[in-house]
Amino acid sequence: VRHLSPALLSAGLLAASTAIAAEPVVFSEATLPHEFIRRAHTAINIDGKLDEFVWSAAPQINTFHRVTVGQEFGDIPQVTRARMLWDDEALYFAFTCRDTDIWAIYTDEDDRMWSEEVVEVFIDPDGDGRDYLEFQVNPLNAHVDLHIISLNPWDSSIEWDIDGVRNAVDVIGTINDSSDTDVGWTAEIAIPWPAFLPQITGGERPQVGDMWRLNLYRIERGAGAGVRQQIVDLRTRITVARQQMESAADTTVLARQVTA
User: Fold this and answer.
1) Long-range contact list for 192-196, CB < 8 A, 24+ apart?
2) Which positions fall inside the Carbohydrate-binding domain (predicted)?
């Protein structure tokens, strides 16, 4: 089940402020929702714990909407919260995910994270739907980063890396153990400003008052690691069987050529 932050559905505002506002500031009457991103005036340690004061002072995004269609999915039972900050070095994201059964399988960079439980960041600074970045991290702190070149036709590069990205998670519970009830997990991400260029168009370090377009997602899947592992194993067996069939077909053709 994929959840989307409505506050960042289509736009984010990057600005500096020394004041603490009680409510997010709306900067235009446009139909696209906006979020105010505060400057971090003290260092952020990327350890997944979110225990710096600057995080507690950052505006919190409280509502994520389900983007899967169909009434059969019902309400979202696992709450997600997010915050964002920036400083001279990087753009920061924090996720807090209520999760009673935390699980993850993939451990290597650029694995198929989107097929299990992750939090995701999509950043398209100029909002044109081209040349934007996607970053995902799972509860094992494995991540995948992609350069999305075009949506239509689809074109992307998983070989592209966000240079200098830092991410960490903190888990309150046990990963891949469905016999107990977990509390949840948090994720912390720092994307350095130089990492956006030259591939991510419009990705120069913003000035106060600039506006970027971005999305925050969380994928929550209730099947658990056991079911997911069975699917992965089945896919592996199918791939091996297909390769064996192709190899057998090639051998048969070669044998016919030799006989002829």
Assistant:
1) 192/89, 192/90, 192/162, 192/163, 192/164, 192/165, 193/89, 193/90, 193/91, 194/163, 194/164, 195/162, 195/163, 195/164, 195/165, 196/123, 196/125, 196/133
2) 46-218
